[in-house]
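To assess whether the prediction recovers the assembly geometry, we first specified each molecular entity separately, as shown.
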Amino acid sequence: MAAVATNPTAPSPARQRKERLDRGIKVRSEDIYALNSWRELAYLLAPRVLPVVLVLLLGFGAPLYWQRVLLSTMVFGLLAISWDLLAQAGMVCLGQALFFGVGAYIAGILNHYFGITPFVTIPLGALGGGLVCTLLLLPVLRLRGIYFAMVTLILPLMIERIIEATKIFGGTEGISGLTPLPHHGLELFLIMAAFWVALFGFRRMMTSDYGLVLKGINDNDRAVMSAGLNIYRYKAQILFMAGTTGAFAGAFMTHAYQFVGMPVFALDYSILPIASAAVGGLGTLAGPALGAFILVPLSELLRGFGGLRIVIYAVLLVVFTVGLPEGVFHFLRRKYTQFERWAEVSK
Amino acid sequence: MSAEVILEVKDLAKSFGGVRAVDGVSFSLRRNELMGVIGPNGSGKTTLVNLLSGFVKPDTGRVVYQGRNITGWAPYRIAELGIARTFQMAKPFYQLPAFKNLVVPLISPRVKRLAGGAYGDRDAVAKDLLEEVGFERDSWVISKQASVLPHGYLKRLELARCLALRPDVLVLDELFSGLSLAEVASLVPVIEKLMVQGKTIVMVEHRLKELFRIADRVIVLNFGQKIAEGEPEAVMVQDDVRKAYLGSEVED
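The predicted structure of the complete assembly is given in tokenized form:
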């Protein structure tokens, strides 16, 4: 967990220090709470229920353009969750585009060549994409850190070139005219459901014994092996889960855009999840998801600036990472769960 | 001491590039025996531990455990058989509270099998184990995040993580290094208790005084080769052992 940063803007008179106290409700461990009143129940539920309600209202209340933005925000959110899931099991991945692209192409191919309905191609694209990506990365599971990262970075770019060179699946043109989902509302609802299920489901998983082992692999994989656990099996399972999550996002996007082409393997889909994680806060799943909710709409808002858009975007990214190195989510959580006050330093 | 050989190592050798880290080492370990492995820095002690626990695959030679050839097996399969090891550099699972560090081995297939599915409350078992190696129960230390524990506790945690696997053979890689005299003195009874429980222990050590008090037998490595074997006192008076430890120019 990131070290607690001191607030540089606060006045720090001599012989005073900032004191942080846990609010009474949060008791010792992460998953045991003592609930005594409705107020305390609300305290626990608010950060979980409010975002869901807010996104629902936003999604169905906003104009169509912003509905589409929200849709792609949640797609990137899924990719960010998938990235963070891998990171928590000690696998730094630079190739979320691989998951996204493979899922997108599987759904596109099934729909275009076999005329299968989106309600089947999206699940098949997700599961098939997860399977293909796991098999592709299985040989390099033994690599750690930067070596694993390099392979994941290269794979999507390689597949892109293969499609270009062999002209399969529409080559550079891609496949267009795919079946859309029957209704915009349904589309929005589907991606929201997937997003929340992934977020809350994986967060739940990380607090279980299974998640404990994953954190152990991240900290010290040799010790996990010497504890009699086959870490490669765990890594492969996580790879499949993260792959399926990313591939779902891809398969969904294929039908939302009614098009699939080489851009699905573009670097954007690999980099933005990492930027989201850096802005939102690593290692919590919710942090990277929140990061996507900041970065994607921000990038849309900046469209008015034309060519300067990327520059301003980059400056804002720097401001976020320098100003809140722990991540927005960690910052908010700290404010929510702890009192802060200035206390006299005793001699 | 029973004479049954539990672990047999034969002509084990491993080279890293041009360096022969372990060069034709053989020994046999009897059940409920405490064998010390000593030798100067770079003599191949840790490589031997890595060979025994499967983290390094030998170039030649065999490791036979209870009649089964386990040469070149993956670490987790060797651990599953009941050979647990500690690491010289005590590296905990930093993000987890001290007692949760033990839950990782506690949910391994071996422990599940031995405990027959019902193993009570794992957190309670973990805390019992920590108490066994000298953590104060009911103190803040037990639930403190492992990244802030002092070195002495990390070494104990390392031992407890090894014990959580319910091993038959423990391979302890410099358990005493970096500990104060008092800390070592408090760990020696823990080791002695394990011997009473019938465990078999291989201890790689630099702290000879403490080791010799508890070891039944010692082997001495130098440049990857076994240069002596026998009872601790008998070994240390041998000329080549003294040379290896004190330098070749030392003459009596």
